[in-house]
Write a structure and sequence with these properties.
Strand order of the largest sheet: 5-4-6-7-8-10
CATH class of one domain: Alpha Beta
Shape: elongated
Strand content: 15-25%
Largest sheet: 6 strands, mixed
CATH topology of one domain: Rossmann fold
Number of helices: 9
CATH superfamily of one domain: Response regulator
Radius of gyration: 19 Å
CATH architecture of one domain: 3-Layer(aba) Sandwich
């Protein structure tokens, strides 16, 4: 990033993988009045004049996931697993808390099994298998990222539980969208990264003209199911990172 700063770029779009990552380079860009757009994972600082956060609406993700899960609840004292909560990804905490708050309205006795985010696929699969063995009555699994969704899918397949336990993902890639299309994964709550990038570029353009200042832009996600995956609206979103055609 230092090279880009020295070259005097018109603006920078970043996707940090940690809440405190890249704070120093962003400050360096601000010192040179270079607009910076932070996508998806906000830094541990408030947006200022030359910085905008363009974020997925993680509360909306939680609401959509809870509504989808509610169709699979039976009676009371249901079990629902939430995979992929991580303190460095603040959006996962918001989504998980929203899911729990919403589902408790359907079943006050509901039990939640939380697993943290695991970045290695092998470890994620082992954790998902252990979860299914320890909680044979789990009704649904909400996976907050791609790795956890794949791991849960593989564990359900090996346990022959597809169709018996609903799997809802909250991040998309080509393989996961394919599994939604075939009905093997119930649904995915897709981040509208195409709109996020478009909004970031437009903000940088307007910032260079001096017509906007630092702010937070929130972009709603979309529920992708077997029924709507090939609709024009969903295909427009998926064309960026997973699933078009």
């Amino acid at each position: 990033m230092e090279k880009e700063l020295d070259q005097g770029v018109a603006g920078i779009i970043l996707v940090p993988d940690h809440a405190v990552a890249l704070i120093s380079p962003v400050r360096a860009a601000m010192e040179k009045n270079i607009p910076v757009a932070i996508l998806d994972n906000p830094l541990a600082a408030s947006p200022k004049e030359d910085v905008v956060f363009v974020l997925n609406d993680n509360a909306a993700t939680g609401h959509i996931a809870a509504e989808r899960v509610s169709h699979y609840l039976k009676g009371t004292h249901n079990e629902v697993a939430i995979l992929g909560v991580h303190p460095n990804f603040l959006g996962t905490i918001v989504a998980a808390n929203t899911i729990k708050d919403d589902l408790q309205r359907y079943d006050r006795g509901i039990r939640f099994i939380e697993q943290g985010s695991t970045f290695g696929s092998t470890e994620a699969e082992e954790s998902a298998e252990e979860l299914l063995e320890a909680h044979p009555g789990v009704r649904a699994i909400v996976a907050l990222n791609v790795i956890q969704t794949r791991a849960a899918y593989d564990a359900l397949s090996r346990a022959k539980l597809q169709g018996k336990v609903a799997l809802i993902g909250c991040e998309q890639d080509f393989d996961i969208i394919y599994r939604v299309r075939t009905g093997e994964i119930d649904s995915v709550i897709a981040k509208d990264t195409r709109t996020m990038v478009r909004d970031a570029m437009e903000w940088i353009h307007q910032r260079r003209k001096g017509t906007v200042t630092g702010e937070t832009i929130v972009v709603p996600p979309k529920l992708v199911t077997k029924q709507n995956v090939d609709s024009p609206e969903i295909q427009w979103i998926l064309a960026v990172n997973g699933g078009a055609n």
